[in-house]
């Protein structure tokens, strides 16, 4: 079974529009036969993704650092839960076990995870699709920044094609499935 690693917020205080999108995309992934790997949390968008996948009898793997277990952030209903020592190990296992990445809105942790995978893809170390769900225009600022990176020649134009941006949860599965393999020429000279 192909599994999609989902990076997203753990905050329970974000607007409902993000929870709705998280639930819809989780259901769409499960209904399309994908398993989900996520950060193991029980609240925020992480909890919504796991809850919805479980509701649809989906395969869910959580990966959570022990310090988060100690403060009771772990999702108790996810049976396939892996405890690790560090945030770095969590991210490493999520990426290694995935056949694609999906970034939902999130904070600094989500951005850090997303940018590391984008860097890996740029260097030819992650060949799978990266999809960003731009709910409510959340990632518009990031897209402006990556475009500025291209304009100022910190990246080549092809590097802005490493990921797919979608606006609706219903478009995520199609974006994953139509993603083309990362072009060899794109990684031959990963710099400018």
Brief descriptors of the model:
Rossmann fold, seven-stranded parallel beta sheet, 8 helices, alpha/beta, single chain
Measure the end-to-end span.
37 Å
Describe the largest sheet.
7 strands, parallel
What do we call the CATH topology? Rossmann fold
The shape is globular
Helix content range: 40-55%
Q: Would you identify the CATH architecture?
A: 3-Layer(aba) Sandwich
Description:
Helix content is 43%, strand content 16%. It is of the alpha/beta class. It has one domain: Rossmann fold (3-Layer(aba) Sandwich). Helix 1 packs parallel to helix 2. It is globular. It starts with a strand and ends with a helix.
Any chance you could write out the topology, listing elements then pairs?
Elements: E1 3-7, H1 16-31, E2 35-38, H2 44-55, E3 60-65, H3 66-70, E4 80-84, H4 87-96, E5 100-103, H5 108-122, E6 130-133, H6 140-151, E7 164-166, H7 172-178, H8 184-188
Helix pairs in contact: 1-2
Short description:
With 192 residues, this protein is α/β, with parallel strands linked by helices. It is built from eight helices and seven strands; from the N terminus they run E-H-E-H-E-H-E-H-E-H-E-H-E-H-H.
């Amino acid at each position: 079974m192909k599994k999609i690693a989902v990076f997203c917020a753990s905050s329970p205080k974000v607007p409902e529009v993000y929870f709705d999108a998280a639930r819809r995309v989780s259901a769409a992934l499960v209904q399309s036969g994908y398993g989900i790997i996520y950060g193991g949390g029980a609240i925020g968008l992480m909890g919504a993704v796991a809850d919805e996948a479980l509701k649809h009898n989906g395969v869910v793997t959580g990966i959570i650092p022990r310090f988060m277990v100690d403060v009771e952030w772990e999702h108790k209903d996810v049976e396939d839960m892996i405890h690790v020592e560090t945030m770095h190990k969590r991210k490493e296992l999520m990426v290694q076990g995935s056949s694609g990445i999906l970034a939902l809105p999130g904070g600094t942790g989500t951005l850090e995870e997303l940018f590391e995978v984008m860097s890996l893809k740029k260097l030819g170390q992650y060949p799978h699709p990266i999809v960003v769900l731009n709910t409510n225009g959340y990632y518009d600022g990031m897209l402006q920044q990556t475009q500025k990176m291209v304009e100022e020649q910190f990246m080549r134009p092809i590097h802005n094609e490493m990921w797919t941006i979608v606006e609706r949860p219903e478009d995520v599965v199609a974006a994953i499935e139509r993603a083309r393999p990362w072009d060899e020429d794109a990684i031959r000279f990963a710099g400018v």
